[in-house]
């Protein structure tokens, strides 16, 4: 599953692991992306979104209807 949130647009960050001897190796900081199913009354069906935990908080605060409306305006296929 791609580590991209459909609501917030969060993507992986990149950096280094730094050892005790100060050697640096590449690493990736993935956002906490979960597959979540929501019922959308205006569409009359369930939709499955890949959302980060921060995206879930946005949905709780704004409501699924508002978030789905914005996603459809962006052209995201649900």
TrEMBL record:
Q: Which domain of life is it from?
A: Bacteria
GO CC: one term? ribosome
Q: Which UniProt keywords apply?
A: Ribonucleoprotein, Ribosomal protein
**Record GO terms (molecular function):** structural constituent of ribosome
Which Gene Ontology terms describe the biological processes this protein takes part in?
translation
What's this protein's family per the entry?
Belongs to the bacterial ribosomal protein bL28 family.
| UniProt-listed HAMAP family | Ribosomal_bL28 (MF_00373)
Q: What is this protein called?
A: Large ribosomal subunit protein bL28
Species source reads Microbacterium faecale
This protein's gene is called: rpmB2
